[in-house]
Design a protein that fits this description.
Keywords: DNA-binding, Phosphoprotein. By secondary structure, the protein is α/β, with parallel strands linked by helices. The chain is built from ten helices and ten strands. Strands 2-1-3-4-5 form a five-stranded parallel β-sheet, with helices on both faces. A five-stranded parallel β-sheet has the order 7-6-8-9-10, sandwiched between helices. Helix 1 links the parallel strand 1 and strand 2. The chain is elongated and about 60 Å long.
Length: 255
């Protein structure tokens, strides 16, 4: 066997059995434990990767993520968490982002999950540096809020005007730009036109994050090929989940 994986779950028998079968095909030994600190600690010997399959039991039980945090601190083990966006958000209240090697969101592609876990067990899937997101918005309060929302999972740089962003892009290449539509002096449309006209920035993905949702505004930027269009009025969880999905799939899905 290549290494040991500990699956922490209660219920979800079909999902757990599917994951066990797929990891078994990769010659990876997998053990299971109920989501309690005592049961988990009994099974961690020899485990290189812990997979926490979240459920309702993540709410109101801080001792569970505290246990996982202790077991994975200092690089002793790699931690993967699986769950809905709400469940993952609850886990992140206790476990810092740097200790979570992989997050898998519902709906799961179990073959992809098994493949990524297999890479971790075999040493080929260590955690990558955080993706770099450039925010462009003249609303200082909204920038501050977004930095708070995204800062635990991404490297976030905030710029307060279109020209400040263009100057920044002359020397940096972020993985994604979140661009406001309405800004004084240089609008979001003008900024995107400049981004697309420069060879060094032309291929950087851009998602509009704006208060404008009228059809004319959307159609005005279609020819500039933005990757997506998000509304500031959407719930925080939807905005975060949309950005996460983009990085996971490199394709845009309207929430």
């Amino acid at each position: 066997m290549a290494g040991k994986v500990l699956l922490i779950n209660h219920g979800n028998a079909l999902m757990a059995n599917t994951l066990k079968r797929l990891l078994g095909e990769l010659k990876i030994d997998i053990a299971q434990a109920e989501p309690s600190p005592e049961k988990i600690k009994q099974e961690t010997k020899g485990a290189k990767v812990l997979i926490f399959l979240a459920g309702d039991y993540v709410y109101g039980k801080p001792e569970l993520p505290v246990c996982l945090k202790e077991l994975c601190s200092g690089g002793k083990r790699l931690l993967c968490v699986m769950g809905s966006e709400q469940e993952l958000a609850e886990i992140r209240k206790t476990i810092p982002a740097e200790l979570i090697t992989r997050e898998f969101r519902k709906p799961f592609n179990m073959k992809n999950v098994a493949g990524e876990v297999g890479n971790l067990v075999n040493g080929a899937g260590q955690k990558e540096p955080a993706k770099h997101v450039l925010m462009v918005d003249d609303d200082a309060l909204f920038l501050q809020a977004m930095q708070s929302w995204l800062g635990g999972r991404y490297q976030v740089t905030a710029t307060k005007s279109g020209m400040q962003a263009i100057t920044y892009l002359a020397a940096h290449k972020p993985d994604l730009i979140l661009l406001d539509y309405d800004m004084p002096v240089t609008s979001g449309v003008q900024v995107l036109e400049m981004i697309r006209s420069e060879p060094n920035s032309a291929d950087i993905p851009v998602i509009f994050l704006t208060g404008r949702n009228d059809r004319d505004s959307v159609m005005r930027v279609v020819h500039l090929r933005p990757e997506g269009y998000l509304l500031k009025s959407q719930p925080r969880e939807e905005i975060i989940a949309s950005i996460d999905r983009f990085f996971e799939t490199k394709t845009w899905e309207n929430p």
